Amino acid sequence: MFEIPVLNENNEKVLCEMNGKNADMGMTIKIKYLKAGESVSFFESENETAVLLVAGEVKFLWNNQSQTGRRKDPFDMKPYCLHTSKCTAFTLEALADSEIVVQQTDNDKQFDAVFYTPENCLYQEFGKGQWDGAGHRVVSTMFDPDNAPYSNMVLGEVFNKPGRWSSYPPHHHPQPEVYYYRFDKPQGFGACFNADNVYKSVDSSACFIHDGEDHQQVVAPGYNMYYVWMIRHIDGDPWYKTTRFVSPEHEWLTRE
After folding, report:
1. Nearest 10 degrees: CA dihedral of 181, 182, 188, 189?
2. Which of 31, 171, 191, 209 has the smallest count of CB within 10 Å of its CB?
3. Are 164 and 135 in contact (CB under 8 A)?
4. Structural domain count of the chain
5. Looking at residue 247, what is its pLDDT?
């Protein structure tokens, strides 16, 4: 499924809600826009929460700690993200006009809040030597089961180079996943493949991926594409980096 979320009266775009829109994703995900000088506070009694800075400048305040993240735009490889368990109060103060992604899901576990910076995020380069470089991209991971086994979510980013493919070869997994796209120019576009459907990905659009649906992406030449990827673990069946099932007809690509 694919859509272009609309801005609501709270200056946010709702991608999915656990008890509402696109509930089968098992997460609440919102894109929130903050004006310079604006602040927003969070406290969830049942849900863990991750807040990722996409663009702008924000001060994160929690448990008598504070950190500031600054990011020119999504293509600046400087992610700042606060990840908290339930029953953790925190506040964001916008020091400039800013865009953030809020990702939440239910989680009984309580854990110490973690603040992710460009220095403690995992960056991986894929596809540079494959398929004449057609799948060359950079993937960053804030947290997954390797560094946050207590979480019920996964959060990362993909930097898709112009004219190249990502999330490739075509693959699927049982855990639900959401993509949120940004382009370096408002007219930028690409193609989102989801099972047997193909959608035109555009700035601020979103893709919702279900169990067993092959998903792969491509961006038009001349445009950079960025997307946040967010996964909800299935209870008793968490997603791992090896949880990528390539369809049999495409398995030969893994040997190229």
Report:
1. 0
2. 191
3. yes
4. 1
5. 87
